[in-house]
Specification:
heteropentamer; A alpha/beta; B alpha/beta; C mainly alpha; D alpha/beta; E mainly alpha; A: alpha/beta; 7-stranded mixed sheet; 13 helices; about 40% helix; C: mainly alpha; two-stranded antiparallel sheet; two-stranded antiparallel ribbon; 16 helices; globular; binds adenosine-5'-triphosphate; binds magnesium ion; nucleotide-binding (chain B); transport (chain B); ATP hydrolysis activity (chain B)
Chain lengths: ~400, ~250, ~375, ~230, ~400
Amino acid sequence: NDSPASTENPSESTTDSSTTETSNGQTIKVGILHSLSGTMAISERSVVDAEKLAIKEINANGGVLGKQIEAILEDGASNWDTFREKANKLIDQDKVAVVFGCWTSASRKNVKPVFENKDHMLWYPVQYEGQECSQNIFYTGAAPNQQIEPAVDWLLKNKGKEFFLVGSDYVFPKTANQIIKAQLEANGGKTVGEDYLPLGNIEVTPIISKIKQALPNGGVIFNTLNGDSNVAFFKQLKGAGITPDKYPTMSVSIAEEEVKAIGVKYLKGHYAAWNYFQTVDTPANKKFVEAFKKEYGSDRVTNDPMEAAYIGVYLWKQAVEKAETTDLEKVRAAAYGQTLEAPEGKVIMNSNHHLSKVVRIGEVRDDGLFEIINETPTAVDPVPWNQFVTSTKGFACDWSDPTKGGKYKTT
Amino acid sequence: MNPKILQTQNVTVSFDGFKALNNLNFSMDVGELRVVIGPNGAGKTTFIDVITGKVKPTEGKVIFKGKNIRSFQEHEIIRMGIGRKFQTPRIYLNLTASENLELSANRNKNIFSTLFVTSKKTDKYKIQGLLETIGLTSKANIKSAFLSHGEKQRLEIGMLVAQSPDLLLVDEPVAGLTDEETYNVAQLLLMLAESHSILVIEHDMEFVREIARKVTVLHEGSVLCEGNIEEVQNDPRVIEVYLGQQNNN
Amino acid sequence: MKLKGGKSILIEVGLVIAIALVLIFIMPVILSDFRLNLLGRFLSLAIVALGIDLIWGYTGLLSLGHGIFFGLGGYAIAMHLKLQVPEGELPDFMGLYGVTELPEFWEPFHSFRFAAIATFLIPTVFAGLLGYLVFRNRIRGVYFSILTQAATIVFFNFFNGQQKLFNGTNGLIDFTTLFKLKVSEYSTQYIFYNLTIVFLVLTYFLCRWLTSGRFGRVLIAIRDDESRVRFSGYNPTDFKVLVFAVSGAIAGIAGAFYTLQSGSVSPKTMEIAFSIEMVIWVAVGGRGTLVGAILGTLLVNYARTFFSEQFAEFWLFFQGALFLIVVTVLPDGVIGWLRSEGIELIKKKRKVSTYPALEESEVQGD
Amino acid sequence: MLQISNLNVYYGESHILRDVDLSVPEGQMVCLIGRNGVGKTTLMKTIMGLLKPRSGTINFSETIINSKSPDQRAKMGIGYVPQGREIIPRLTVKENLLLGLEARKNRVRNPDIPESIFRLFPVLKTMLSRMGGDLSGGQQQQLAIARTLMGKPQLLVLDEPTEGIQPSIILEIEAAVRNIVETTGISVLLVEQHLHFVRQADYYYAMQKGGIVASGLTSELSQDVIQRFLAV
Amino acid sequence: MLASFLDVLFNGISTGSVLLIAALGLAIIFGLMGVINMAHGELMMLGAYTTFIVQNVCKELGGIWFESYIFFAIVTAFLLTAVFGLILEKGIIRYLYGRPLETLLATWGVSLILKQFVRSVNWVLFIGISLFCLLFFGGLWILNSRFNSHFNFIRFRSWVIGLLFSLSLAVSFTTANFFSQTYKLSVNQPWFGAQNVDVTAPTWLQEGLNFSELNIPVWLKEDWGLGTLYFPYTRIFIIFLTIVCVTGIYLFLQRSRWGLRIRAVTQNRDMSACLGIPTETVDGITFALGSGLAGIAGAAISLLGSVGPNTGQNYIIDTFMVVVVGGVGNFLGSIIAALGIGTANFLIASGTLTFLFAPIPPLVDFFKFFSTTSMAKVMVFGLIITFLQWKPTGIFAQKGRNVEL
Ligand SMILES: Nc1ncnc2c1ncn2[C@@H]1O[C@H](COP(=O)(O)OP(=O)(O)OP(=O)(O)O)[C@@H](O)[C@H]1O
Ligand SMILES: Nc1ncnc2c1ncn2[C@@H]1O[C@H](COP(=O)(O)OP(=O)(O)OP(=O)(O)O)[C@@H](O)[C@H]1O
Ligand SMILES: [Mg+2]
Ligand SMILES: [Mg+2]
């Protein structure tokens, strides 16, 4: 996927439609495409909430280019096929100006060809495994070097050299673990075991047995489990006497919402790596958290993907305003270099379609929020093609330069 | 002397220790019409089960046309030339009477001829005739689930006739039929007996008298006595275990 | 219902062809590209539904694992499509997982002919094998259903877990060309659409042929009383294995067409929910009526699209309710209902006579 | 005891019973005869409540039971021996028999099977722990009768009870039923093909094509009637 | 050696008992009634959500209440799901007896609805649904009791029902809409939402039985290695709960007359009715009991896993397997099957087998390949198929002439 497949006359029709359909009307239509049902609904619904909040705020402040934003919500139903079908529908039928959506890598990978073939635009809000750089997708979550790699470095320095990797049987964990293994090997750590649970499985006894066997005297557990399995995992870890003092666990898919769902008791003292925590101390965050609670109830919490989704909408708005049109190509060009005082701190959209972000390590505290115990002094620049993995070593991505594109050799 | 079409040697069938058939020795000539009677639970139906492979004998062997049938599956045994009617009617409820008959009449029962060979005209006439014989012409084209008990009985007899195997095993063909129908079935069996070997099980003694040439009495899984109908009827042991004292009639 | 008499066959063939022509020539004019593609996909789903009706409606085998065969067919064609890369290169995803050499079993899929045959042959073999192992032991009814369901889990875990071989959860996506035609192009899609219709018609007639006539009656007999069939001299195991394999093949073909039109195949097709849904399409249309299978598929899928577009948040309610209503209120599905109630409304009430001789004998004054 | 008037029963659209009138007086034994497929079983099922009549009434011990469910009718004292035995196959013989007690109005403590049952059907005693479905056809029929007797019904509805039973036991059943009628005063409605048994009844009805075409005392049941309604 | 044996034994039993408690309800509903209940997992989910609610209430009360909430939760979960099961049976299942494959589809619909229900239930929805049920089923009931014997009504029944259905739908929809417009957030907010909710075990269940701190002879700890053992209390609790439930069910089915009635009704509904068994009551009780057990299972597994809309759905296949392998309708079989499958799963997935077969290298590689949780499932399925080749109808197969019928 060096370059999008269709390049003959790509923007012709979409430009037409987006100018005629969306500008003639009183509103600008945008698509929101997430799972509202099925396994992934758990996580994706709150992202939808964040996106809706951003749209509502923007509309309240006069909209974009003087028009109100109209969100069209589609349910991907945790089913990749449905995601693709709905993406098609949003683009062809509803003629939206942009789509905000997806959570799982699989859903993103599945809609990617759609957006590329139709030369449309997707804003993707979740931290992911990297190894991708599409001209038609903007990634507002972390690339691996903005979450996983710093987390591993931090663990190596502070917590121990022996790692047990646990993940869901699924793309992100497997790719992430591949990176971690390569990184550990390069930096003097050791992988003592790994295991994968089918999504949603809660029988973790065998894994716990394995951990005890592989790390009889304690060690680091790196957890890339997704969704329901996390609950079972942490509940039963505690039941089995595996506690953070001897077995610190670093998770990259557990944020404030999940802590709430798993139960603080079980998680206290474990770690997570993100770019954003609800406890981040910035004025923008204060405002964001307040607005969110006001809209959805004071018991709700905010987390990294929600924040990423929220700023995604704002960044798109800024780009549209700079381009003064919803024409996709122009918006894309205008997006490069956009900065935003985001809740997580200042972010910059790079020409590789990823954001520069601050990386933070948090420890779960009594109230279910994270104590930020480590944070990079400045924003880390994104590296979509991983530099630890041999097959992508030495590659980079730059869409602002037509000669470089999605995957070019740097050295 | 006729060769034997069916022979059993020391057949024992036991269910968890209960011997439904006990060392049974039995033989039947080609072309013979044999009636088997015996008390309830004597093992008559089990006997037929053994012959058709539904139940495997615990001991002993069953020899049909000179072959031990032990290693064959049910449908293979049937294809060797045995046909059976069950004690309680078992027909295909979602097929019509004529379809039921057609299914049995089909000569070649492997998949491919079932798929590719269409039925012949003569078969159709044969089925028409049969429907007439069993008195179901007017109900030939309704689902056989809608037949009454007696009609189902007759249909199953018809299916057996349609199949026209070398050996017919008929378990209580006239139970639930009216006297008139009983008479018809008797005639039908007598007619068939001219060219087939038939084994009939029945409790209706009128009917047995009507058709019987040689009668075997089973009791507790083995042969109690064998002979023509008079001998059997007057055998005190048979009266004791089976017929009872027919005081008036 | 039965293929009886030359005339009604001709009428039926004519009708089917007429509908096919409408689908081929009229629909593209009425529908937008997106909607046409949707229709094409639903029609390929209707192909599986026919296969399910064949085994469930007629033979009484409720398979909850047809997603496997559907998926296998899809993967077979998708593997061919993924190999449309310059000589010496690997399908894109393999690079990500550090695969440097094409796995052995991918090799033959370079040939289109092989892939095309594989779309139905592989499912046939698997279905045949599974069927043989299960039916040979006279495992029946719900046991069979539950085993097929468990088999889907196994296949799902396998395809889902093998990133290097099949790209795991993501499945095979992002097809470029087939015979130098761009797969995503409208004209190419239109060809697939037409082919789907052709195959749907062919499958319909295949099933029609299998279920009418003597073979079909044996199938029904097996459904009614399998062990009795043995005593009629047929071997139900053979029949069931054959029918199951055929329906597996049909599912494979359907999967291939679906994959071509949807642009991907993933282990999701092997999730239990999908296989159960297939059965529901048939139930909605009316089991044991081939037309019902097609109708049900279109109906449910359109309803789903409609509800999920209109009420994105609540469509599961509607879907669930739809199943409930169909199963409880329309036990024989839409077609069954049309037959019993609908026809009554149009025609005069059919008269069923119980004692056919009654009228005459009354005249005779019994 | 039982009074049926103007009963019309349909299977779907097909009219099976036509204007049937029939009554079973208290303490009497009434027999229904007719050829195969005329609707005898249908009538029995309607009495039991397994089929709903489209019109007409069924009156049992002074109450109209049209809208009562089968189990209510059983509890009211109708005991039914169906055609085709209907043994519960995967219950033991003993359990099958104990099910007969369900029809009793008062709960039976320490359920036990009375000796009288075994006197009538000695085989059952030796087979108490065998599965009902494993019995031979005739044994099942005996079990079905015994099971119904366990419930001590007031009206015994028997649909071809002697089918598949060996001659000597048929005789015993006949005698027993007669005996029960005489000693306990319960009523019996019987469908039967064996003329011998038919003659034990007090009263007969002959049925043809869904309607009652003749009735009278069995003592007057002439060869002519039999000829007309049982043979062609 | 002893230690690892004990460890395997304990883990096997505890995995098995989770399976068993989940399968118990199914063994009744499927095994005895012949209804393939695809909503079983969702009934467990209801039980789990009940636990969540009870926990929250008890948390408010604090102290001893919270420490013992799990017992109230189990009872409430049982009652609530039982009532739900009863409604389900009376509303839907009873039209489908004797058509097992259809029950599968209907209950699948129920499971979809339930899943969506907990995700989006809020006051508006609650009001809407209650109103709809009231109107529709009330109307139906009136119609049925008034006009049931009317011949014409039977013929137009489906039309009338359709009309009633759309009317009730329209009325309840408008009412719900009205509420949501007037009261806004307070009624529109979901009760639970799509997220998982947190069920925290009482403190005394959170840790485990640590053998190294136990008052047992030192030689046992050191020489026999028992000191390394650590048994989670939740697991022990679930094992006990399972034992209690199994015994309870056993007594109910074997010692009370209901067991006999249930079995009779499912094998021959019409005849049972003719014998005087109130079939409808029996059905209702049985289904309620099975559902209630699912509720208990839900409460139990909420201690181990997540409580969310998808809770339970992962169990459905495993539980069916337990029932099938055990031999449908056979309790002892289910118990053995659950323990067997549980132990096998643990042995394979935890890689213990690789140690056992250490002397034989090719086997080690073989077992290593399967020693992840996902692949272990594949292997267990293989084993089950192999087992069924040998015993096609389960551990305790039904024997005799009647099995084919
Ligand atoms: N599977 C089985 N398990 C246990 N006992 C069985 C089984 N099958 C048959 N029996 C017993 O074997 C005996 C013989 O049964 P069979 O059906 O052969 O009798 P029959 O002679 O046909 O009697 P009837 O005239 O009543 O039909 C009976 O006592 C029956 O209970
Ligand atoms: N389920 C059904 N649906 C439609 N018609 C049926 C159904 N059951 C029976 N019939 C028809 O009703 C008529 C009466 O059947 P019924 O069983 O009452 O006869 P019967 O008098 O008991 O006969 P037999 O002596 O053979 O038992 C028969 O013509 C039969 O074809
Ligand atoms: Mg017999
Ligand atoms: Mg009858």
